[in-house]
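Here is one chain, start to finish.
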Amino acid sequence: MVAGSAQAEPFAFAGFDRNMDIAVWIDRYPQSSREFTPGAGAQASPDNPGEWTAEFLRARRSGRYALRMIAAEARDHVYYVRADLRDGALERLWLLLEKPLIKADRRHPTRSHEARYPACNDVLKPLTAKYGKPEALHPRWEEALQSFDYVWTQAPETMKLECGRYDGRKAIFAIGVTFEQTPPR
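Its structure:
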């Protein structure tokens, strides 16, 4: 949605949104690996780091929390999640849609890099159906990757779908979905 449109609920994708309590990830994704980098001034508990992390997340202090999902717990192409917390607020939530590279198996040749991502339209269409037509930003190049960003804005947040295509190739794939606070004007 663009600014000025009505929206009753926060932007969401694959069960993730900026208003969620990320402490629930510990129970919801018990086998997936986690990393937590607390903000300045935090004191870790050497006796029980898992319990300390859960309490730290419930308190929503500043820091960065990352979740690497195993295939059995992944859904809707989300394999990696990073949450940036600042002063108790989930400031930025990034969902990476890249399927992890699995150790090469001689019986199954390594697939192209694009095959590790869903098609852009497979993510764009349901988001557009739910939130309306996004703003399509001007494509940009970074080395051999052309990126296409689609942005929905509804204060106090924005949601961005980043898609890409390698130079000389036709396949356009979805890279990630980002939720952020709308910058103050």
